[in-house]
Amino acid sequence: MRHIDIDSLSEEELIELNHKVVARLRFLSQMRSHSTMLDFRIGERVKFRPDGSPEVTGTLTRYNKKTVTIITDSGQHWNVAPGLLSRVDSGSARNTSSDDAGVVRFPDRTAEK
């Protein structure tokens, strides 16, 4: 790591250095968040616990810039930081019928012909 003697810097140089440090820290935070976001897949069942509320379970539907969008089983939309999410265990997940997976099955028309 490079050693910077900040005692010799002018006020202008310190302000510029501060801006660069803040920008770099923001970038590193976004990269961590993005990496955590990609640990989850669209359509995956996830859970999280909002402050002062019971655990919420839903389906990840969208990646946003800093958050992911979760649609709960009751239809509520939540934008949640990916670091607050965890996967729903397949054993404790609800029955994954076609209705739960968001897939609508159509009647087999080949049987009618």
Notes on the protein architecture:
This protein has 113 residues and is of the alpha+beta class. The protein has a single domain, classed as SH3 type barrels, CATH 2.30.30. It contains 1 helix and 5 strands, in the order αβββββ. It has a 5-stranded antiparallel sheet, with no helix packed on it. The protein is elongated, with a radius of gyration of 23 Å. About 7% of the residues have low confidence.
At a glance:
With 113 residues, the chain is α+β, with helices and mostly antiparallel strands. It contains one helix and five strands. The protein has one domain: SH3 type barrels (Roll), CATH 2.30.30.140.
